[in-house]
Design brief:
The structure holds two protein chains of two kinds.
Chain A (H helix, E strand, L loop, with lengths): L10 H30 L6 H4 L25 E5 L5 E3 L1 H6 L3 E8 L5 E11 H7 L8 E6 L5 E5 H4 L4 E7 L2 E2 L9 E4 L11 E7 L31
Parallel strand pairs in A: 1-10
Antiparallel strand pairs in A: 1-2, 3-4, 4-7, 5-6, 5-10, 7-8, 7-9
Chain B lengths: L1 H15 L1 H7 L2 H14 L1 H7 L3 H11 L3 H8 L13 H25 L6 H31 L1 H9 L1 E3 H7 L1 H6 L12 E3 L11
Helix pairs in contact in B: 1-2, 1-3, 7-8
The chains are: A alpha+beta, B mainly alpha.
Chain lengths: ~230, ~200
């Protein structure tokens, strides 16, 4: 018998084992649980920005710093197999016909943000304006972060939900969401929606993008690729 | 350990609190630091297992006596004698080991995500994210308690506490070890090799 009275049930061990069991359970059902969490507390305004997985965006960047740009010098170029190459400043982009759409944003890692309002210029409008060669097979995208790339087939690029977005939730896109211009390919997983966009190039072949080099699907339809079964974004 | 936990929390904030991560950038650096500190975290615990006094402390921490439960429930806490560790410290240390193991395992799954199916990765992310919030609250409470008791902090730093403090906070232990006083009899000190993670939670 311990004279200090440190006898009794091994509560410490039970707590540790209990937490391990809970942790394992959480890993097993976490994906489903996070959907429930996102749908319940994520609906409360403000909460989604402070709590993990509560329906908020998680921010990913593949470079270490924040990509730098200046509103006066920023240009979006449209080049490659086009009749009329473009180099558009932000005011020039703003003068083009604006399209608004509200779409869920689905990440391939599981989180989904419901009903994000975007606005900007339809990709197909830009391609038409640049007189893109419709027989070209692909459209490449590059980011001024210097690293990230993406591409779409020409027919994907002409879908009516492919947006070159400048606004999100009615405000100019914030730095972490890819300011000043990003692609929003809502029908596809988030990695297609390249941020900090600076170059659009019409080309002959699809080149797998940054993550696609690591094995993600090039045709990244939500719910029909990457082995996932999320509800499609319509 | 305290240093590693602080590094883990700060790097986590730099990575995942949107406002902070946008301001500081440097994601790859913080990611590397976070993973490094995560791997280092269990090392002090494993090393301490080599030493018999630490192992004795762990077996003390493991067992909750009826007095410990009474202490935990209160009221009249000062009148309920505690051993070397009180009920709160025992539960805190168990919960700490629990979160360290769970965070380590889920962190491993996230850091080496290519080995895990998407379902598991999403689950690990869920557990790691939510448990992280709980850990921040737990650690903040722990630091607040230590802040309140300078002598407990001195005990953590030097390994020694005064006999009067020990009588007040750990009476059973103090009485048992009255003969182990330090050579300086004018200021009776008691050796209290608390593990650094156990500030006084009284």
């Amino acid at each position: 018998m311990d004279p200090e009275g440190d006898t009794g049930a091994p509560v410490g061990r039970r707590i540790v084992l209990g937490m391990l069991a809970l942790g394992a359970l959480g890993v097993a059902v976490g994906r489903q649980a996070s959907t429930v969490v996102a749908n319940s507390i994520g609906a409360i305004p403000g909460v989604s920005s402070v709590l993990p997985g509560a329906g908020g965006f998680q921010i990913y960047s593949v470079v270490s710093g924040q990509p730098q740009w200046h509103p006066d010098t920023y240009r979006l170029s449209v080049s490659g197999r086009v009749g009329k190459p473009l180099s558009l400043s932000l005011p020039e982009l703003a003068k083009l016909p604006q399209t608004h759409m509200t779409k869920d944003f689905q990440c391939v890692t599981g989180w989904r943000v419901r009903d994000v309002p975007w606005s900007g210029v339809l990709l197909s409008d830009l391609l038409t304006k640049a007189q893109a060669d419709r027989t070209a097979a692909a459209v490449h995208f590059s980011s001024f972060d210097g690293v990230y790339t993406e591409s779409l087939t020409m027919s994907q690029a002409h879908r009516s939900d492919m947006l070159i977005a400048t606004h999100m939730y009615g405000e100019p896109i914030t730095q972490e969401h890819g300011a000043p211009v990003r692609l929003v390919a809502a029908a596809m997983y988030g990695y297609k929606s390249i941020k900090w966009l600076s170059g659009i190039t019409v080309a002959s072949t699809v080149i797998p993008g940054y993550w696609e080099d690591d094995g993600y699907d090039v045709d990244a339809w939500v719910g029909r690729s990457n082995g996932r079964t999320d509800p499609p974004v319509v | 350990m305290a240093f590693l936990v602080i590094v883990l929390i700060i790097t986590a904030i730099c990575l995942y609190v949107p406002m902070v991560s946008a301001a500081v950038g440097q994601r790859q650096l913080f990611r590397q630091l976070h993973i490094l500190a995560g791997f280092a975290l269990p090392v002090p615990i494993l090393v301490s297992l080599l030493f018999a006094p630490s192992r004795r402390d762990y077996s003390r921490l493991n067992r909750m006596s009826s007095t410990d439960w009474r202490w935990l429930r209160g009221p009249n806490r000062p009148a309920i004698p505690a051993g070397k560790f009180n009920g709160g410290q025992k539960l805190y240390s168990a919960v700490s080991l629990g979160w360290i193991l769970v965070m380590f395992a889920t962190g491993l799954m996230l850091a080496y995500n290519t080995f895990f199916a998407d379902q598991w990765r999403a689950g690990a992310s869920f557990v790691h994210d939510w448990l992280a919030l709980a850990v921040v609250v737990l650690v903040a409470g722990h630091m607040y308690k230590a802040w309140e008791d300078p002598e407990a902090r001195r005990g953590l730093r030097t390994g020694w506490v005064s006999q009067a403090w020990a009588q007040r906070h750990h009476a059973t232990w103090a009485q048992r070890h009255q003969h182990d006083l330090s050579p300086n009899q004018s200021d009776p000190q008691m050796r209290k090799t608390l593990d650094a993670q156990n500030a006084d939670t009284e």
